[in-house]
Amino acid sequence: MRELRLYDPDRNPRSWTDIIRPGQYAVFHSDLGTDVEKKPDGRYLQPGEESYCLLFDCIEDAEAYSEAKVAEVPSLRCDIYDHLGKGKPPTRTYVHISQVDAPRKYVLWGWLLLAGAAACFMIEWHWHGTLIVPLIVGLNMTFAGLRLIYWGKAGQEKRQARKSN
After folding, report:
1. Would you state the pLDDT for residue 8?
2. First to last CA, the chain
3. Structural domain of residue 80, as residue ranges?
4. Same domain (yes/no): 8, 88
5. Against a cut of 0.70, is the pTM above it?
6. How far apart are CA 80 and CA 53, in angstroms?
7. Which of 4, 151, 11 is nearest to 85 (CA)?
8. What are the CA-CA distances from residue 76 to residues 70, 79, 97, 128 (Å)?
9. Of 25, 46, 33, the residue nearest 76 (C-alpha)
């Protein structure tokens, strides 16, 4: 494992993707909730601090490191990229085991909001469209529920973790 500065104007080649070879993998650290870059110890970068990734010679080493790091810092996410860089989705994404089922909660709450919206629309229908409040509440519940379902489904595809034995 070695640290690789991402932006180095004095380096030749300048891009980090030109340094990494096929078969090597780069691990990037970010905040699980906000996607903001973090240091491996879980702290945010301070103004003026350099951005870097960790370079591994094989996927097994990168996976072992990422698994151990998210177990140590639960708010951290480790994304593993191959030699092609960030031009495509990460090869692997590691999060703390407690966060793996979090997208299911979003989906559940989304469906509950849609059920509540249906109840609001039924009340509005029963009163022949004379009440405005159930319509407004129902529309807001519909959009919020659909947004939560979308977030939950997208999160299920993105998150991976291994259970510790």
Report:
1. 82
2. 24
3. 2-96
4. yes
5. no
6. 10
7. 4
8. 6, 10, 11, 51
9. 33
- Return the biggest CA–CA distance within the chain: 72
Q: What is the spatial order of strands in the sheet that 76-81 belongs to?
A: 2-5, 52-56, 25-31, 76-81, 92-94
Task: Note the pLDDT of residue 13.
Answer: 83
Backbone angles phi, psi at 116, to 5 degrees: -65, -40
Consecutive 10-residue averages of pLDDT for the chain (165 residues): 86 84 94 89 90 94 94 93 90 83 82 97 93 95 94 62 39
Number of folded domains in the chain? Answer: 2
Q: State yes or no: cis peptide before 13, omega within 30 of 0.
A: yes
Co-location of 17 and 53 in the same domain: yes
CB 32 within 8 Å of CB 83: no
**Pair 54, 65: CB distance under 8 Å:** yes
Tokens of 11: 């380096």
